[in-house]
Amino acid sequence: MSPMDTIDTIVIGAGQAGLAVSRCLASAGQEHIVLDRGAVAQRWRDRWAQQRLLTPNWMSRLPFWSYQGDDPDGFRTLPDLVGYLERYAASFDAPVLDGTIVESVLPAGDASTGRAARRASRARFVLSTSRGQFAARNVVVAAGACDEPAVPAALAGALVGVHQLHAADYRGAGGLPDGGVLVVGASSSGLQAAEDAARAGRDVTISVGAHRRLPRSHRGMDIWWWLERLGILDRSIDDMPDPQRAYREPSLQLIAGRDLDLGLLADAGVRLTGRLTAASGRRVDFADDLASTIRVADTRMRWILERIEANVRSSGLTAELADPEPFRPVIASAAQAGPAGPRSLDLAAAGIGTVVWATGYRHRYPWLQVPDVRDASGRIRQHGGITPRPGLYVVGLPFQTRRNSHFLDGVRHDARAVATHLCLGQVPWPRVGEQLDGVARR
Fold it and tell me: What burial letters (b/e) apply to 379-412, b meaning 16+ CB within 10 Å?
């Protein structure tokens, strides 16, 4: 196949979302290729290898593929996850073209795509890549939920004389300059960076923004088991009273295998502050919102635990489970500068040499140059993975159709829906009991 032959479908991204789509298309006999800037699971390869997946092994479910090991309740290291996805791709000989950087995606009729591209039979889109141009009838954007680290430019630009990095680039305290560490953001990645730096003997401050606190387990069962049992992970975006607010839900404050929260960090000597609001030179200011932010997170966690307990009572499981653990609210350490944390900090005087921005990710897609498919914030306009432009789809966005749409376990639902729409319902799907050694019987 030469680059300018028209390919029926091009999938952009060879992570879990792109591979899940590819598997569904392969099952339907649909011609397609998968492009990735690196190798299979490149984003996971780029992360700190000491991190572990937040979901247990039994939740590593993809189309026609599931965990078959002897530790279903364990948590994968990221190198293990890369290997899992490599084996998945190999199981159906996924047509991945690695090392292919997508430079632009344009409508095939656009004048800038060139005469040869416009002549390409049936093509709706032309992709310019580091391997040349490709024409495609369909394009599935599966570039992942962590498209680009989001750092507040105004705040970061106002700081001088301090080392700055995003949590995605954190590789342990040993790789940081000497001195204390300010972590901005209190979700999973922020907590892990703060704990790691504190364990390495650094003086650590964490600026706390909105977050969703969860226990690692309750009554002896992992929290993900409970969330799935309660149907929370499958809740549809269409059922949310305010979908835009749902898209902006704060990230989980959760790590693999054990509890870690702000209270435990405070007990370990980490200073808690409110949300970072201003920066100038080596001075930073914080909002007076630490107590209220913690209170909101604790209230939401209590609500989850109450729902779990109601389910235990209604289903008669009380005798079969461990006793419930007492709820432990986050209480600021008495060693801190007051219950609300400091309102400002001179980084030089405090000996802080590094700022770690654990501030999430944004979705920009500068290469997606198809009119009318992105909103003002750059987010792809879609419903159920189907965009306003015929033939253009997306898979793997946070809360794309359901709460777990961007999880390793959740992309299978949206991958199936998109592939079914693309193939007009030709995708077979394994029924219960059809899986053997990770591969569904065909």
Answer: bbebeebbbebebbbbbbbbbbbbbbbbbbbbbb
CA distance 40 to 90: 10
Residue 350 · residue 285 · CB < 8 Å: no
Distances (CA, A) of 13 to 68, 138, 212: 25, 14, 29
> What is the spatial distance between Cα 216 and Cα 196, in angstroms, rounded to a whole number?
19
> Radius of gyration of the chain from Cα atoms?
23
Cβ–Cβ under 8 Å, residues 274 and 286: yes
Residue 11, Cβ density class (10 Å: 0-12 exposed, 13-18 middle, ≥19 buried): buried
Measured on CA atoms in the order 332, 338, 343, 347, is the torsion positive or negative? negative
Alpha-carbon torsion 294, 295, 296, 298, what sign?
positive
Whether 58 has a pLDDT exceeding 80, the answer reads yes
Q: For residue 151, give both structure tokens.
A: 């750092």
Contact indicator for 30, 93 with CB cutoff of 8 Å:
no
Whole-model pTM: value is 0.89
Gap between the Cα atoms of 19 and 30, Å rounded: 14
- Residue 184's H or E segment, with its range, is strand 180-184
Residue with tokens 């049936």: 122
Secondary-structure percent of the chain, ordered helix, strand, coil, rounded to 5 = 30, 25, 50
Min mean pLDDT across 122-131, 149-158, 358-367 is at 358-367
Q: Which amino acid is at 288?
A: D
Q: What is the mean pLDDT of the chain?
A: 88
- For helices 16-27 and 78-91, angle between their N-to-C axes, nearest 10 degrees: 20
DSSP state of 168: G
**Tokens in use for 10?**
């091009």
**Range with the poorest average pLDDT among 5-9, 105-109, 268-272, 378-382:** 378-382
Domains annotated for the chain, with CATH where assigned, are 6-147+363-440 (3.50.50.60), 149-357 (3.50.50.60)
Angle at 248 between CA 218 and CA 412, to 5 degrees: 65
For the cut 80, the answer to whether the pLDDT of residue 30 exceeds it is: yes
The helix or strand, by DSSP H or E, that contains position 217, with its residue range, turns out to be: strand 217-218
CA distance 341 to 230: 36
- Within 10 A of 174 (CB to CB), how many other CB atoms are there? 8
